[in-house]
Design brief:
Keywords: Amino-acid biosynthesis, Branched-chain amino acid biosynthesis. This protein is of the alpha/beta class. Helices cover about 35% and strands about 15% of the residues.
Length: about 300
């Protein structure tokens, strides 16, 4: 972030907590990787995929992170929290180790903090040290860039797995597979013969290419768009996150498509300011300004 003078984030993690984290992963019987928006910002999709392939640790992603890990893989279990997948919630609740990668422990995910992952140790990875322990205390903290940290974890795992026994995670992933299969809703239609919204969105996802960008506002629209499409690539899902700004889908998809431009190319040519009515989800005013700002 060159435009913030004096801000010098630590990108390379310290090796000591890296080794401690890997030792915890090696001994864990029910670990889960909880991935947040920091993984998207740092471009950690490739090292994240390599880490999961190597370790076999199940993955759950926040609302803002859909697509950073491909849904076609065998180990993603969806989005936890409000409106999320039941398998993702069970993965966090029954885990013995939660690895939070670039994710804040938002109350939409944790609920009551004292009841979140009651039997789990927590490893919190973030480039901003003020985020670690802000909402939920962590047993291990690693300050560093998500992409660099997950790469360091992979290298340390390769170095230590020949010296220490590695836990078999097949029963853990098998349990989550069963939960996912039993909790997935049937989307063949409704009892009155009409098509359901979930069925339509899922079919559209099957007919569109992997680089399709999905845009949604808050409320049930966000829940539907976050859960039903199959996301294979990062930066293909745009939404307001926790603020749930009603009406934000309108400028993102219609004003020269500046939202997808920012997501793909890191800049925009058009910005929009608007005010919406939260109850009716209608746009009250829209002002468009042409500019050439860069992120």
């Amino acid at each position: 972030m060159k435009h913030l003078l004096g801000y010098r984030p630590r990108r390379a993690p310290h090796p000591k907590p890296i080794r401690a984290a890997v030792c915890s992963v090696l001994s864990a019987r029910a670990p889960v990787l909880y991935v947040g928006g920091g993984a998207v910002s740092s471009g950690a999709a490739v090292p994240l995929y390599q880490w999961v392939e190597l370790t076999g640790v199940p993955v759950v992603t926040t609302t803002m992170t859909r697509g950073v890990f491909p849904d076609s893989h065998r180990l993603p279990y969806g989005m936890p929290g409000v409106g999320g997948a039941h398998a993702a919630k069970q993965a966090l609740h029954h885990s013995d180790l939660v690895i939070a990668l670039g994710a804040s422990f938002d109350s939409h995910v944790t609920g009551a903090y004292e009841s979140f992952a009651p039997g789990a140790h927590i490893i919190h990875i973030d480039i901003d040290p003020s985020e670690i322990g802000r909402s939920l205390s962590a047993d291990f903290s690693i300050v560093g860039d998500c992409a660099g940290t997950i790469t360091a974890l992979t290298e340390q795992f390769l170095a230590l797995r020949s010296k220490y026994p590695v836990s078999d995670l097949s029963s853990w992933s098998g349990y989550l597979d069963q939960v996912q299969a039993n909790s997935r809703p049937q989307l063949d239609g409704r009892a009155d013969g009409k098509l359901s919204a979930g069925f339509v969105v899922e079919k559209l996802s099957q007919l569109t290419p992997a680089e399709t960008v999905y845009v949604s506002e808050g409320g049930p629209h966000r829940t539907l768009a976050a859960n039903r499409p199959t996301y294979e690539r990062p930066r293909t899902w745009l939404n307001s996150g926790s603020p749930q700004v009603m009406g934000m889908h309108f400028p993102l998809r219609s004003v020269r498509g500046w939202g997808p431009q920012v997501a793909r190319f890191g800049y925009w040519r058009t910005t929009a300011r608007f005010c919406s009515r939260p109850t009716a989800s209608r746009l009250r005013s829209l002002r468009v300004f042409r500019s050439k700002w860069r992120c």
